[in-house]
Amino acid sequence: MKARAQRTALAIAVVLMVTAGTTVQAADGWLWSITPYVWASDISESLLIRDEIEGGSDTSFSDLVEIADTTLQIHFEGVKDHWGMFADYTYVELSDSKVGEMEILRLDVDITETVLEAGAIYRPGGRSGNFDLLFGVRQLTVDEKYNLQIGQFGPFESRIDEGYVDALVGARYRIPLSDRWVISLRGDVSAGGTDYMWTAHGILGWRFGAKRNSAIFVGYQYRDMEFTKGEIDVKKNLSGFGLGVKIGF
Fold this sequence. Notes:
mainly beta; elongated
């Protein structure tokens, strides 16, 4: 609980610093935005211990709505001329239970997961350009508890409580369809602390405001990752549709 509170406090501090920075630098020609959003993800996860698959779960978003304790997703961004900065924060708490065929296997899972990204944006075409290169870091923090019951044997408990820091590179491309409508495509990959993590998403946005720097968007995202701690190997992918509101200033 203490570690969880510290991570949450750190995230709030980042939010406050970025928000404060907008007030100071907006007058210097920076274009800033803040975007709360949600991805309605299906989650597929496999747990391997001693090189043998001990359990796994496939949980749809319709199930997660009822079992998620807390969820927060928000994105910050600022661009001036060719350079900019970004930060993205995702926090999710959830739990679930799965029973295998013939009810011989039962797996109980409790997951707390945060993903914090931060880095620089390079826009070769300047502020009005449509192509961005992304460089930065991605921190994955997981606290996953697994409780496996095999018939009359068990329960067998496993836990991952660890943080992983990766180097992140990616690219983003915008396709203006009209003055108000735009498609945005992004792909990135990170590695270092994790074995790997990569994300791809595409969104369709409707821009509004005098400068067309605010938008309502819908989209689709896929994320795949693998990380280890000791003899525990976790493979996970998330995919699903999302929506959000970008507020530019």
